[in-house]
Amino acid sequence: MLIVKRIVLLLLFYSGSVIYAQDYQKVDEIVSKYPNRFSSAAKLANQISNDFKTDSDKARAVFFWIADNVEYDSKEYGKFTYEYADKEEYLRKQKKYDDRLSKRVISKGIAVCEGYSTLFSEVCTELGIYSKVVSGVSKTTFKDIGKRFYPDHAWNIVEIDKKQYLVDVTWGAGTYGNGGYRKGLDNSFYLTPPDVFIKRHYPLKYEDALLKYKISKESFLNAPLVYETDFSLISPMEGIIQKSQETVKFSFGCKSGTYTVDYDIDRKQNPLGDLKCIDYKLEFEIELKNIKRAKELTLYFDYKQVAMFRLK
Q1: Which residues lie in coiled coils (predicted)?
Q2: Same domain as 105, residue 7
Q3: Sequential DSSP letters for 73-121
């Protein structure tokens, strides 16, 4: 059993929540009336060019159309493959591969992350907008905390008005888990601030993180999963909590107010109640008892998933 103690807190300043400032409602409304299938990236690009003038609106139109019309299908993994002997052959075959893959995704409406990101890049290229596919490591469940480093995901960098941004169309389109695929637009994965994106995405080439400071692979792999950007995790920074500990203290940066706090242990919900955020800081302490078989601990603030830890 877990005994949770409330602690009122002090000190430190929290800079506030991440705000995704631009309202894309008008763009989304127009694109929602597009056909749900096109024969090629060029066809979709032509439609977008007819309706929008700025690169900002065009890039958003690409994101929304893909997120709205393409569904995740794990059977699409490894659909096309090729071999090459040198760089010249690689570049030639990769171009054909990208073209073939994007045509399949845009005409069939199914893909895995590689298909989502390739199509996004191909349509942007047709629109004269710089974009590229980024490969790297992702974290989605408690089992990913402390895992070894290997590439398992793909996303995009897109350049708008001479500034580069991060986009994950796959996660922006919906979620995939034990219950299968659940479609649902998530704008938090569109033009995501790099310091937020890095919490769940680590590129093979670190310059693709678009960060001015370095986060090591080890720090990324061992950090907890952080979901809700309205709160800033202060401690613990290690994602693996040893069950041999008697107590664990949690500390979050927050905006002034009162928050309903709940936590799950292996998906068993435990209401903690309403806690006040004072001086931009919220803390509580959990005493660990009789949880030998427990594997995960998840925190919720105002019924939103905030962070997940692995129990070991």
Answers
A1: none
A2: no
A3: -GGGTT-S----SSHHHHHHHHHHHHHHHHHHHHHH-EE-HHHHHHHHH
